[in-house]
């Protein structure tokens, strides 16, 4: 698969670069309503730098009789940094003048939020950037699976064969929606390992639809970062940046992780495990990204499919959507239940341990 350039979180001493520019602006809903900033906590209440009991995110609201983590208020002001270069507007409206550019990794002190826009001051000026593109320094994701949250297994018969279809690299609206259409028509679920940088624009609705249809959200780093080609200390950043983009869209963080390219090592496994995520690999790879041949993808999966398999595909190619539209009803007709990775793990009582590699559940 083609490598995509990597983004890194920069040191705390980042700065704002004010350079007047006329770069393109994404279409953003307008609004002036002031909103409360929220964050999430893991059960160990560590902050993003690994310090126990970080105080920037307020008080944890974990009830003693429940494994569910509630979202908590995130007090102002707080330091955040840009996920990517982004326009600074003079007002909290997408059609307002562009004051300059906030460079990737630049740090700002967020003073308040207005309808999804973060406000901050630099050199006596007020500027506005979409909240989604500023990740708080102390952001910690909530990974529901490993906080003990159960999924609905009432529709699954654990005595019958099941298979987990997984899709990498998206979302891509024109492809992902075709796959979701087929899953909805056939009563199936799938797991989508997403690049955080792609959870923007029209693709946002795909992520919301995944949740509505009972599909599983997976993390595939922020920009398809090959973990063996970056410093191990940056692994947390590229994973958390993906979590943030997804959670800002649907208020649910990814529950499983797949390393881009399947690239992994002992150090990578340890870093991923420290974030409470298993590494989902695969047992069937039809090479859809290479052949771009719907017939080949269909035939390989149908010939190899067994109970407990995890199938690798990519929802960035029209040819994969075509193959999936044939595979989903065909697998159902063959007697397979189309489930998510986590549904299969819970239905089969298969232990998914943070940092461990999972190829299949046979």
Mean pLDDT: 82
Radius of gyration, in Å, reads: 21 Å
Strand portion: 15-25%
Treating each run of at least 4 consecutive H or I residues as one helix, how many helices?
A: 8
Give the oligomer, counting copies of the same chain as homo and different chains as hetero. single chain
**Amount of helix:** 10-25%
Structural class: alpha/beta
Major sheet, described briefly? 6 strands, antiparallel
The H/E string reads: EEEEEEEEEEEHEHEHEHEHHEHEHE
Weakly predicted, low-confidence segments: 1-71
Give the strand tally. 18
What distance lies between the first and last C-alpha atoms, to the nearest angstrom?
28 Å
Please tell me what the overall shape is. elongated
Q: Can you put this structure into words, describing what you see?
A:
The structure is a single chain. It is built from 8 helices and 18 strands. The strands form 5 sheets. Strands 1, 4, 7, 8, 9 and 10 form a 6-stranded antiparallel sheet that branches. With 362 residues, the chain is an alpha/beta fold.
């Amino acid at each position: 698969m083609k490598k995509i350039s990597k983004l890194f979180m920069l040191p705390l001493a980042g700065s704002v670069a004010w350079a007047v520019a006329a770069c393109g602006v994404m279409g953003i809903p307008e609004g002036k309503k002031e909103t409360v900033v929220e964050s999430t906590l893991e059960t160990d209440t560590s902050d993003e730098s690994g310090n126990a009991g970080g105080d920037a995110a307020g008080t944890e609201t974990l009830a003693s009789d429940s494994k569910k983590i509630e979202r908590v208020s995130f007090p102002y002001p707080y330091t955040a940094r840009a996920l990517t270069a982004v326009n600074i507007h003079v007002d909290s409206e997408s059609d307002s003048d562009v004051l300059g550019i906030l460079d990737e990794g630049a740090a700002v002190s967020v003073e308040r939020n207005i309808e999804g826009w973060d406000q901050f001051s630099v050199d006596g000026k007020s500027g506005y950037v979409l909240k989604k593109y500023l990740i708080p320094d102390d952001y910690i994701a909530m990974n529901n699976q490993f906080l003990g949250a159960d999924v609905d297994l009432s529709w699954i018969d654990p005595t019958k064969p099941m298979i987990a279809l997984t899709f990498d690299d998206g979302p891509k609206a024109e492809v992902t929606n075709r796959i979701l259409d087929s899953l909805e028509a056939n009563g199936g679920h799938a797991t989508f390992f997403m690049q955080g940088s792609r959870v923007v624009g029209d693709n946002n609705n795909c992520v919301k639809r995944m949740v509505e249809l009972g599909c599983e959200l997976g993390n595939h780093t922020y920009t398809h970062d090959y973990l063996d080609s970056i410093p191990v200390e940056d692994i947390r950043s590229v994973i958390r940046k993906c979590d943030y983009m997804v959670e800002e869209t649907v208020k649910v963080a990814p529950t499983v992780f797949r390393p881009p390219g399947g690239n992994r090592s002992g150090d990578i496994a340890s870093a991923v495990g420290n974030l409470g995520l298993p590494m989902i690999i695969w047992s069937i790879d039809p090479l859809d990204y290479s052949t771009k041949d719907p017939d080949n993808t269909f035939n390989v999966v149908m010939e190899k499919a067994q109970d407990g398999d995890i199938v690798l595909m990519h929802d960035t190619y029209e040819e994969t959507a075509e193959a999936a539209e044939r595979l989903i009803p065909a697998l159902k007709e063959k007697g397979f239940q189309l489930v998510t990775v986590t549904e299969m793990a819970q239905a089969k009582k298969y232990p998914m341990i943070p940092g461990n590699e999972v190829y299949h559940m046979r």
